[in-house]
Amino acid sequence: MSPPPQARKVFVKSFGCQMNVYDAERMKDVLAGEGYGEAADIENADLIVLNTCHIRERASEKVFSELGKLRELKDGRRALGKSTRIAVAGCVAQAEGGEILRRQAAVDIVIGPQSYHRFPELLRRSDNGSRIVDTEFPVEDKFDHLPAPTTEAIRSRGVSAFVTIQEGCDKFCSFCVVPFTRGAEISRPLARVIEDARLLVDAGVAEITLLGQNVNAYHGADETGATRGLRHLFERLAAIPGLERIRYMTSHPNDFDDELVAAHAEIDKVMPFVHLPVQSGSDRILKAMNRKHRIEEYLETIRRLRAARPDLALSSDFIVGFPGESDADFEDTIGLIHEVNFASAFSFKYSPRPGTKAAELTNQVPETVKIERLARLQELEVAQRREFNQATIGREVDVLFEKTGRHPGQIGGKSPYLQAVHVEGPVNLVGRVAKVRIVGLKPNSLTGELV
Ligand code: SAH
Ligand code: SF4
Ligand code: F3S
Predict the structure, then answer these.
(1) I want to staple 90 with a disulfide (CB 3.0 to 4.6 A). Which of 51, 262, 265, 419 is the partner?
(2) 327 CA to middle of ligand 3, Å?
(3) The predicted structure's pLDDT at residue 6
(4) What is the pTM of this model?
C-alpha cells in the first residue's frame, strides 16, 4: 500500500563528482513538489535514488553491489507491508540503461542525468508497477523545468552552494566516459545562472561554486543573445551583495583565456584556488589521451595565473598507467609535480572504460605497475599538501565559517585556498567571513584563532 503523498520520503545516495551532489539537490527539489520529504535514513525511504558514477570501473561496479543491498531492504520493507521504489540515476544509468533492469529486478526506474525534470512523470508511469527507462537526451533543457529550491531547502544545505553552469563535454579525451554519459557541452544562459545565484544568496548562501565538466569553456547567452565567457559571469555574480566568494570547477587547460586569468587579480570575490587537471606530465601520453595541449603550455598557463595572483593554490587530477605509459613518462609526471608544487591533487589508476578509444589500446600497463606508480605519486602529493598547509601557519587568512565543529564552542570553515579551518568562536559567525590566524596543523585541517 502506498503512503499518502505528504508522508512520502525520498533518500538520494550520491557517488562521483560535485555535479552529482548538485543534481541530487535538484532531484530532491523536483520530488518535493510531488510531496516527497527527505528521509533521515535509507531504511525509512519510500523512494531510494542511487545517483551513480561511471568514471572508473570500481565506481560503476559499486552500483550493482549497492543495488543488491537495496533489494534486501526492499524485501524487508515489503514484509512489513511497505512499498519501496528504487531509481537509478546518474552516469551509470545513462551508460547502462535497460541493462540495469535486467541485472537487478528490484530496480523500478532508470533515469539519465538530462531527464531529472521528468522524474514526477516517470514516477506516475511506474505507479502501476511498470519498470521504466528514460535515458534520452531530451530536446527541452531540464534546467528550464526543474523547480527552484525553497528557502528552507537552501538553508538546510549550508552557506556554500553549487550551481551547474555548463554540462557535458565535447573534448573526448581518449580515456573518459563523460562525453557519453553527460552528452554534448551546453552552457546555461547567463540570466538563469544569476537568478539561481540571487535566490541562493537571498536565503543566506555566501559562497557559490560554479560547476561544469569544462567550466572555463562556459559560453552562455546574455540578455541580448550575445555569448559571454566565465569572466563576465564572475563580474555579474560579484555584483550580488551578500555573495562573498566565487569558486569554479573543473577547468580545462585549453580554455584559460587572458580575461579569465586576469579575473584572479581583479575580482576580489574570485578565490585564489584553481583546480586544473593535467592527467600526465608526458607530452607523449597527453597526445595519446587526446588532451590537445603540451606540458609547456600547461606550465605557461600556471605562470600566467601565478603572475596574476602570486598566492594562488593549484590542484590537479592525474591518471597513472595510461596505456603505453613508460617509466620515463611516469618520471615526467613526477617531475611536473615537483615543478608546479600543488596544494592538493587527485590521482587514479587508469581504468579502461567501455566505448572509449583508450580501452581498445593493446599496450595496457600491468596492475602491479599502476599500483606502484600511484603509491609514489600519492606520497609526493601528501608531502606537497602538508608543505602547503604548513606554509599557512602564522599567517592571517579569511575564513568563511560553514558550521559548528565537533566540540562545543568550535566552529569550522574554509580558507581562501579551500583548506578546512577550525577555531574556538561564536556560532553567529557561521555564514560570515572572519580573519583567522593559523596556529596549527591537524591531519585533515588547520587550527586557528580569531583575530
Ligand atoms: N572534466 C575534467 C575531469 C572529469 S573526470 C577534466 O577534463 O579534467 C575526473 C577525473 O577522473 C579526471 O580528471 C581523470 O583524472 C579521472 N578519470 C577520468 N576517466 C578515467 C579513467 N578511465 N581511469 C582513471 N581515471 C579517470
Ligand atoms: Fe572527460 Fe576530457 Fe571531457 Fe574532462 S575534458 S570530461 S576528462 S573528456
Ligand atoms: Fe562520475 Fe558522471 Fe561525474 S561519470 S565523475 S558522476 S560526470
Answers:
(1) 51
(2) 29
(3) 55
(4) 0.96
